[in-house]
Amino acid sequence: MDYNSNRKKLVLPEYGRNIQNMVDHTMTIEDREERNRAAKAIIDVMGNMYPYLRDIPDFRHKLWDHLAIMSDFKLDIDSPYETPNKEVLDEKPEKVPYSSNAIKYRHYGKTLQLLVDKAGDFDEGQEREVLIQLLANHMKKCYLVWNKDAVEDEKIFEDIQELSNGKISFSEDYKLIEARDLLQRNRGKKKDNKKGDKKDKKGKGGRKY
Length: 209
Fold this sequence. Notes:
mainly alpha; single chain; 8 helices; 2 domains
């Protein structure tokens, strides 16, 4: 038997063995006009394999590029597009630069750290107070998600003061939302999401009249 392990490795497996064989045969055709007709026929077959991609810009351009790749860039035809450069395709992609900004407390996250720093620059007033209150309560919720044990408000106050470089401080009588209320809100949201999922499933699987 002719096993795939004994056959030539497919350059683009998504098109299958038959398409690759058609490409290989086209490369053996000596007459240029006939070779061009064969190449166009292969492009049509390749396009029919993925009809839902036809509306994508440059879809046919990609098909001709794939044809060139499957022929190892040796198929001499009159392509309607410029043949891609093999050396460019073989180049390794450049390394993606990752942010080196350190996160002080990972359970709060980088975004919350930036928001706290931004809130510290707000002018004194109601808007600043409301923003700080929202951030402090959100930090308490994040802390409880990370550590299921209860957390004292003083700990949140210390963290937000440190993250803001001392620009935000709290009075002794300042109170945050109780831990049990924050956790209850999380449970309530999860229950609502589950109910919504069940309704969607019932709606999809329900009777049709």
